[in-house]
Amino acid sequence: MIKHLLSITLLSAGLTAGAQSFSGMYPFTGVSTSTTTGNTGTTDPTPTPTATGVTFGAFTAVGTPTNTSAGGVFAFSGWTTGATNGNDVYSSMTQTVDLTKYYDVSLTPASGYEVSLTSITFNMNRSGTGPRTFVWRSNRDGFAANLPASVGTNTNISVQTANVFLWTVDSYTTNTQQKNLMVTLGGTDFTAQTTAYNFRLYPYNAEAGGGTFRIDTVTFNGSASLATGLGKISFDLNSNFNVYPVPSHDGVLFIESKNMSDLSKIEVLDVLGNVVLTSSKNDPKIKLNLTDMPDGNYFVRMYSGTSVSTKKIVILK
Q: What are phi and psi of 141, to 5 degrees?
């Protein structure tokens, strides 16, 4: 006998609840070059940001020397050279992105949550011979394309073709941190995701191997929504379970199955995915009393071993 499965997708309004906005900032205050306690190395030891529904990982430096070059910021040297000291012509810079050298960080949605991201804001600086160009990429496309870049006012940074940030003026008369830099996130790749986001910042085209690239006050902006877990529900038309009557005109329903002994749990969920009733009985016939529930559509979800079977029910008193 051919087994048929029917899958339906609920509207997004019925999938999430309690969206909470967040701005998770990395201040790098724990980064140190102290001769007393030692250099903090390639992983930022500063406590990571916290927000409901998302876990922030620590920033790490990959492909760089093992020691940070400054405290209170994330600063490393060893970047790919390709720019000439004193030359501001972008087309003369010889290197493309070096995929082996970058700053890396991950954001992971907590269990039961969906995370959407809208932007990354950050400050940066370079030493006199540090990288002139840098880009952000993500794991959503395998780190293939540069993320949309923009700059604020009063900055020595411009945005070139293909979203490349460029330190525009080589003249280094003041050691001024550049602020109001931003990467814009959006679209399906950064909306309502339940798997980890991984971001990499690639500095390149340094004027010398000892030139440093520094980032500070990196902030991830977005929101976390409680995911109901309904998402896509597969209804097994050949299920051994039977729920009746549908619709129920008094809020009382019954579940019958020949394999009730295999049943570990029964849940009744509303259309928002909230569990309104749980039962673990394994009698041949189970009574569900939903007389106190308002009229509407509900779902009975039955757990048997490693399988889950779901049926839609209707209360119409």
A: -125, 25
Distance, CA of 209 to CA of 13 (rounded, Å): 52
Structure tokens at 59: 């920033």
| pLDDT value of residue 284 | 65
* φ, ψ (nearest 5 deg) of residue 229: 85, 0
With 0-12 / 13-18 / 19 or more C-beta atoms within 10 angstroms meaning exposed / middle / buried, residue 159 is middle
Q: Is the dihedral of CA 60, 64, 67, 73 positive or negative?
A: negative
Same domain, 78 and 202: yes
State mean pLDDT over 146-151: 97
Domains identified in the chain, total number? 2
- The helix (H) or strand (E) run that includes residue 181 is strand 178-184
Where would I find the beta strands (DSSP E) of 186-306?
Answer: 197-204, 213-227, 232-236, 241-244, 252-257, 263-269, 275-279, 285-289, 296-304
Place of tokens 């998402």: 231
Q: What is the per-residue pLDDT across 1-47, written as a single tens digit (0 to 9) for each?
A: 333 333 333 333 333 344 689 999 999 999 999 878 889 999 999 99
Q: Burial, 5: exposed, middle or buried (Cβ in 10 Å; 0-12, 13-18, 19+)?
A: exposed
DSSP 268: E
Answer with the one of 227, 250, 274 that is the final residue of a domain.
227
Q: How far is the C-alpha of 88 from the C-alpha of 134, rounded, in Å?
A: 15
Query: What Cα–Cα distance (Å) separates residue 286 from each residue in 187, 253, 257?
Result: 45, 8, 9
What CATH number does the domain containing 284 carry? 2.60.40.3080
In angstroms, rounded to a whole number, what is the distance separating the alpha carbons of residues 249 and 255? 16
Residue type, position 279, single letter: S
Same domain? For 59 and 200 the reply is: yes
Q: Which domain holds residue 253?
A: 239-315
Structure pTM? 0.70
